[in-house]
Write a structure and sequence with these properties.
The chain is of the alpha+beta class. It folds into two domains: 65 residues, Winged helix-like DNA-binding domain superfamily/Winged helix DNA-binding domain (Arc Repressor Mutant, subunit A), CATH 1.10.10; 111 residues, Trna Endonuclease, Chain: A, domain 1, CATH 3.40.1350. Helix content is 26%, strand content 25%. The strands form two sheets. It has a six-stranded mixed beta sheet with strand order 4-5-6-7-8-9. A three-stranded antiparallel beta sheet has the order 1-3-2. α1 crosses α3. The model has no long low-confidence stretch (mean pLDDT 93).
Length: 176
């Protein structure tokens, strides 16, 4: 029988694929030493494996990391203090992750250059907001946004293992 935190790790890696070890440690919201013990125990039980020389963790060593999902998880981590461990999961394409925060649904969408038309596939609903991750914020000006509240984000690694995540609010027609 797995401990609660171990169950979380297995579920996250099952639903998102391989993720950087640093993301899993942050998602656990435990001191790094405790998180390391949890991960070592799961490896010992052969529930998870190192991927990419140990930079990533996965359900097995053949898991391939998905860069869109990894970017979306970096943004999710900015809200992790307000999100229950099991209140986030993969979303329907073109979104990567759906999460609940204070009875509001959020979808994280990662767009690369030339993919602005993917926003047409979104299906806005009441009580749903979008966080759109862009390679650079200047791309936001060319987007035709869904009829729903949107927040923009950029993920900038600046040569570090853990990136800086910057948020930008959507301007209204008056430029506010």
């Amino acid at each position: 029988m797995l401990l609660q935190e171990e169950q979380y790790v297995v579920k996250w890696l099952s639903q998102y694929g391989a993720l950087p070890k640093s993301q899993i440690i942050r998602m656990l919201q435990k001191p790094p030493r405790t998180a390391d013990k949890i991960l070592k125990n799961l490896k010992k039980q052969m529930r998870i494996s190192d991927v990419g020389g140990g930079y990533y963790l996965g359900i097995d060593s053949m898991c391939q990391p998905d860069q869109r999902t990894i970017l979306a998880v970096w943004v999710l981590l900015k809200f992790i203090d307000y999100v229950e461990p099991m209140a986030h999961y993969p979303a329907v394409y073109p979104s990567q992750i759906f999460f609940l925060k204070e009875n509001m649904g959020y979808e994280i969408v990662v767009l690369y250059e030339g993919e602005s038309s993917n926003l047409r596939l979104l299906q806005p609903q009441d009580d749903l907001k979008y966080i759109i991750i862009l390679p650079h914020i200047s791309m936001a000006a060319q987007l035709k946004l869904p009829n729903a509240p949107c927040l923009f984000a950029t993920v900038d690694f600046c040569g570090k293992e853990e990136p800086e995540v910057y948020f930008y609010a959507q301007e209204d027609a008056n430029g506010n």
